[in-house]
TrEMBL record:
UniProt-listed SUPFAM superfamilies: Protease propeptides/inhibitors, Subtilisin-like
CDD domains the record matches: Peptidases_S53, Pro-peptidase_S53
Native organism taxonomy: Bacteria, Bacillati, Chloroflexota, Ktedonobacteria, Ktedonobacterales
SMART domains listed in its UniProt record: Pro-kuma_activ (SM00944)
Molecular function per GO: metal ion binding; serine-type endopeptidase activity; tripeptidyl-peptidase activity
Protein's name according to its UniProt entry: Peptidase S53 domain-containing protein
């Protein structure tokens, strides 16, 4: 024992000596050889090379930095995005939540901490970390930033404009090079502009501009509006870099009999929400969305017009994950944005697509010359493959309906650009052409293998502009409030509101919402459909690119026929093979994919007393029930019935969204209405939090929840079959003579560990 102890002591002493020598050597090396640094490419603002150097910027000026981080597992994420939008894939439309994206693809906590530690070691203050880890905000003086990234920040002059910017590429320690994507905020050379144009609508609605009636008639939204499809249960996020007057919005809704607006605000990076010179853009966006989808909820995200403000506002919209649709009417010339910033935004937009969000962005108001010079260029963010770029047209009506369209262009309007004004479009110089951008006209004489813009179009010419209500004097609005506005910034919210209608229609047909819609739009245009989805614009040009049959670089696929798009998407076929559910220890069934959506049934008025639920034991299959399964399953299944041969089998697969419902009419007179059913559940989850859920709902004919008799989770499942009975008389007392729905709904997260729910022997009685 003594020998072992001595040897151990000698070993410890030797180790200490060796460590001391090593540390001394490392210390000498550190003093002799500075830590290797690498440049962050794409970080010199393009405007610097076209500007005059004035001198060094004030060293004490404070900068607000936006550090972009690289995504993890990029190859796996690219494969996931492909599968999410490929019909037939087992992951088709199984969208991620913001939390799932952050956990699987965002930088790890340790990676984020490496960046944070470096920033703090250089004297910078870290002020915010995005929930997905892709953005880290920091602040510090110009002197501190110059030292941290070994750059020189100067003041420059470009025409009448003065700005500050870094003169060379910033550098970072090579240990961080695999993590850092961009360092935004070292310059203020780029300031996004609202893409609207005020004008006189000479040919539009007697010179007063198009309002809801004209827009709905022109783009075939009335068949949906008249049947109650008005954006119910849909949320549109409105990206803004200015504020607005809520009284203006209320007045617009009142003037046009649109009901009460459902609008909330999210202020980003300390923006105070005040209405300034860009307020007309904000009010235009909100009002046009409301014109098309008055019942849709709108969340207006308002941030400062800085690199940090822009990035954080986009990021907040996506990481909040509350909206299915986003409208963006602010943009900047792609060539002036800088490649690093384009990559940073691309990561945010990819996450949006993975979450099933569509982002509509105005394609620009300077025609094919978005940099407002004589060089061909496109607008950011409409140039991004994960954004839907919206071009501009001149719309003419005929008897209140669609008449004709031509490309918006006006070579004599040189207020902004020497070439004139018009709907933006062209070929990106940065992004590759996405795999889904195919179809007649896409491969044309101007094609280079890069992303082509726009994807679609709508009215944007100020001569056929939109009737807007705005009284903000700082924005140039009149005291009367009546303003006519054009620009592709009006076309983008028109499409956003239209998609809210389409999504509601799809859901009422037992279909999922469209998600990121670009692949579906190009499929509609390149394959035979029951109904023509687009008005093909074949007249005019956008100052360079001509309109042609099919796709072109001036109008994209064309303008929308909203009702036809909704019906075509609803008839789009099944998503293809689905995974096999494995609900705990129960026998594994072989599901039968649903080949087409079950028709919506017309409810039969029930008798004054007796049963109102038909085929509650499911022995007649799915008769009398409406089914929806995100993976295409037949929900009536023999795997686990309570009695008889069949029962309802919900979920048991990853990213499940299964719904089983039946409509009935509440009788005019009744003393008691009772709903009863048997249910069970099985899970192989060990988590004690509510991750997978089962809900029993009563809905009105607009899809609004009347009551939720039951909600259960993976963490409170019964040991076996359990009967539940509810007296729903009070809940339905005000619905006499009206159609309501009994709904069984289940959802699970996108993991291999999952939960299944079972329903059988459903009965409803009226006394």
């Amino acid at each position: 024992m003594q020998r072992h102890f001595v040897l151990k002591g000698v070993f410890v002493i030797s180790a200490v000596l060796i460590c001391g020598i090593s540390l001394f050597g490392i210390s000498l090396m550190a003093h002799a050889t500075p830590q290797s640094r690498v440049p962050v490419n794409g970080q010199v603002p393009p405007l610097v090379s076209h500007s005059r150097l004035v001198g060094a910027a004030s060293s004490q000026q404070q900068l607000q930095l936006s550090i972009g981080l690289k995504m993890r597992n990029e190859q796996q994420f690219a494969a996931l995005l492909h599968d999410l939008y490929t019909p037939g894939s087992s992951r088709y439309h199984q969208f991620l939540t913001p939390q799932q994206f952050a956990a699987e693809f965002g930088p790890t906590q340790a990676q984020q901490q490496q960046i944070i530690d470096y920033l703090r070691s250089q004297g910078l203050t870290v002020t915010q970390i995005a929930p997905n880890g892709l953005l880290i905000d920091a602040t510090g003086s110009i002197a501190t930033v110059e030292n941290a990234f070994q750059v020189k920040i100067n003041t420059y002059q470009s025409g009448a404009r003065s700005f500050y910017a870094n003169a060379s590429l910033p550098t970072i320690p090579d240990t961080l090079s695999s993590l850092v994507l961009s360092i935004g905020g070292m310059d203020n050379s780029v300031r996004l502009r609202p893409l609207n144009r005020q004008g006189q609508a000479k040919a539009a609605a007697g010179g007063n501009g198009y309002g809801p009636t004209e827009l709905r008639g022109a783009y075939d939204a009335l068949p949906l509006i008249q049947t109650g499809v008005q954006g119910n249960n849909q949320t549109v996020a409105v990206f803004e870099l200015d504020g607005y007057k809520s009284s203006d919005i209320n007045q617009y809704f009142k003037n046009n009999a649109l009901g009460t607006p459902n609008i909330s605000n999210v202020l980003v990076d300390g923006y105070d929400g005040s209405a300034n010179e860009g307020a007309i853009e904000v009010e235009l966006d909100i009002e046009v969305v409301g014109a098309m989808a008055p019942k849709a909820s709108q969340i207006v995200y308002e941030g400062p017009n800085t690199t940090q403000g822009v990035n954080d506002t986009y990021s907040r919209i996506v990481t909040d994950g509350k909206a299915q649709i986003v409208t963006i009417s602010w943009g900047e010339c792609e060539a002036q944005s800088g490649n690093a910033e384009l990559q940073t935004l691309d990561g945010i937009f990819k996450q949006a697509a993975a979450q099933g969000m569509t982002l509509f962005a105005a394609a620009g108001d300077s025609g094919a010359y978005d940099c407002n010079d004589e060089n061909l260029a496109v607008d950011s963010p409409a140039d991004d493959p994960y954004v839907t770029g919206v071009g501009g047209t001149n719309l003419q009506l005929s008897g209140g309906n669609y008449g004709s369209e031509s490309i918006w262009s006006n070579s004599s309007d040189t207020q902004r650009s020497p070439k004139g004004s018009g709907g933006g479009g062209g070929v990106s110089s940065f992004f590759a052409q996405p795999s889904w951008q195919v179809g007649p006209g896409v491969n044309n004489q101007y094609s280079t293998g890069k992303r082509e813009v726009p994807d679609i179009a709508a009215d944007a010419d100020p001569q056929t502009g939109y009737a807007v209500y705005c009284t903000v004097s700082a924005a140039g609005c009149s005291t009367s409030g009546n303003v006519v506005v054009g620009g592709t910034s009006a076309a983008a919210p028109l499409w956003a509101g239209s998609l809210a209608l389409v999504n509601e229609y799809l859901q009422k047909q037992g279909k999922a919402g469209a998600g990121f819609i670009n692949p579906a739009l190009y499929k509609l245009a390149s394959t035979q459909q029951p109904y023509p989805a687009f008005h093909d614009v074949t007249q005019g040009n956008n100052l360079f690119y001509p309109a042609t049959a099919n796709y072109d670089l001036a109008s994209g696929l064309g303008s929308p026929d909203i009702y036809n798009i909704a019906r075509d998407l609803a008839n789009g076929g099944s998503p293809g093979p689905a995974p096999t559910p494995t609900p705990g220890s129960s026998p594994t069934p072989t599901p039968t994919p649903i080949s087409s959506p079950t028709a919506v049934l017309s409810p039969t008025p029930p008798p004054a007393s007796g049963p109102f639920v038909k085929n509650g034991g499911f022995e007649s299959g799915s008769a009398s029930w409406q089914e929806y399964s995100a993976a295409g399953y037949e929900l009536v299944d023999p795997a686990h019935p309570h009695t008889g041969r069949y029962g309802a089998y919900l979920c048991g697969y990853s990213a499940c969204n299964d719904v089983l419902s039946q409509d009935f009419t509440v009788p005019a007179k009744t003393t008691k209405i009772t709903l009863s059913y048997w249910w069970a559940g099985r899970t192989n989850r060990t988590a004690q939090s509510c991750v997978d859920s089962f809900s029993v709902l009563l809905l009105d004919n607009n899809g609004k929840v009347i009551a939720t008799p039951q909600r259960a989770c993976n963490n409170n499942l019964p040991a076996g079959w359990q009967q539940r009975t509810f007296d729903v008389t009070k809940a339905l007392s005000s619905y006499a003579g009206r159609t309501v729905s009994v709904v069984f709904a289940a959802r699970t997260t996108a993991t291999q560990v999952t939960t299944a729910f079972f329903v059988d022997d459903v009965s409803g009685t009226i006394q």
